[in-house]
Amino acid sequence: MGRGKVELKRIENQTSRQVTFSKRKNGILKKAYELSLLCDAEVAMIIFSSSGKVYQFATDDDLVFHFNGCRMDRIIARYRNEVGLLHSNHKRFRTLESWKSEIEELQKSIDIMEARLRHFCGEDISTMGIKELKQLERQLRVGVDRIRSKKVSNLYTTAA
Amino acid sequence: MGRGKVELKRIENQTSRQVTFSKRKNGILKKAYELSLLCDAEVAMIIFSSSGKVYQFATDDDLVFHFNGCRMDRIIARYRNEVGLLHSNHKRFRTLESWKSEIEELQKSIDIMEARLRHFCGEDISTMGIKELKQLERQLRVGVDRIRSKKVSNLYTTAA
DNA sequence: CACTCTATATATAAACC
DNA sequence: TGGTTTATATATAGAGT
C-alpha cells in the first residue's frame, strides 16, 4: 500500500525497515482494537521489534494507554486452556543462578536445534562447506527412504 | 473500507458481525505475518471469536515450525519476562513461578523440536499418517534440492 | 524518530452465490 | 461458513521536514 509495491521479504535497509515497522505496528494495533470492538472478539497481540522493544494490545486494555496488559494474562491463560497446555510444578528451592543457568542451557539447545531444523529444510546453508552439505544430503536421503518404505507398508496395511 | 463506512462499535446484526469477523481476522493475521517478515519482528497474536473459537499467529510458526503455537509459548515467555512482571508488585524480583514457567515453556519447545528432528531423520514415524508422511517427504525433497544447488554453486566458487 | 503530504496498494462492506 | 464482484474506505510507501 503506497507509492510502491513491497516485496514480501525482510526489508534490508535498516532505516526504512524501522519506519515501516513503526507505521505498520500502529496500523495493526488499530486493526486489533477494531476487530475486538466490532466483532466482540477477545484479542491479544505481542510485538517485539527487532531492536527488542515490546508493544502489545489486549482486549479491554485501556484504549488511550494501552500499554498495561491487564487482560493479557487472562487471554493467555484462556489460550493455554484451549490449546491444552498443563503445567505441573515441583522443585521449590533453588537459587537464582540455578534458574538462570538452566534457562541458558535450554536456550542453547533450542538455538542448536533451530539451526539443525533449518538445515534440514535447506535454509541457512550458505555457511556450510561441501563436506557438511554432503553429510546433510545423505541424512536427508535416509529420511526420504525410510518415509517411502513406511508409506508403502501403510498402503498395504490400509488396503488389507 | 468498503461500500459503507463502519461505526466503531459492536456490530449488532449477528450475521454481519460474524462475516466481518471472518474477513478481518484473515486480514489481521496476514498483516501480522507481513509485519514479522518485513520488519524482522517477533509477533504473537491470539484471537477468540465471540463464539469461542480460537485463532492464532506466532512468528515462524508457519515456516520450519509449522506446528500450532510452537513459538507462541516462547514469545509469551519473553513477554512475561520483559513486560508482564513490570506491572506486578514485584518489579525487580522474579517469582519462582515465572522461572518455572519459562523453563517449562522452553522445555516444551525442545520436546517439539526433538520430535520434528527425529521425523526429519525418518525416525519415530510409525505414528504418522500417509498425509503427514507425504508432507514430510515433500519438505525433505525441498531440503535436498536446495542443498544440491548449493553444492553445485560451491563447486564453481571453489574451482574459480 | 514523529509527523506531513499524496499517489497507490490493500482491505473490506455490501450483495450475491 | 467460504468464494465472487465492485465501489469505497483505509493503510501505507516514498519523499520531505
Automatic annotation (TrEMBL), chains A, B:
InterPro entries given in the database record: MADS-box/MEF2_TF (IPR050142), MEF2-like_N (IPR033896), TF_Kbox (IPR002487), TF_MADSbox (IPR002100), TF_MADSbox_sf (IPR036879)
Matching SMART domains: MADS
* Domain K-box as annotated: residue spans: 96-160
Q: Which Pfam families match?
A: K-box (PF01486), SRF-TF (PF00319)
Localization per record: Nucleus
Main localization of the protein described in the UniProt heading: nucleus
Stretch forming the signal peptide: none
* Coiled coil ranges: none
Q: In this protein, which residues make up the domain named MADS-box?
A: 1-61
Q: What are the alphabetically sorted keywords of the record?
A: DNA-binding, Nucleus, Transcription, Transcription regulation
In Swiss-Prot or TrEMBL terms, this protein is called: Uncharacterized protein
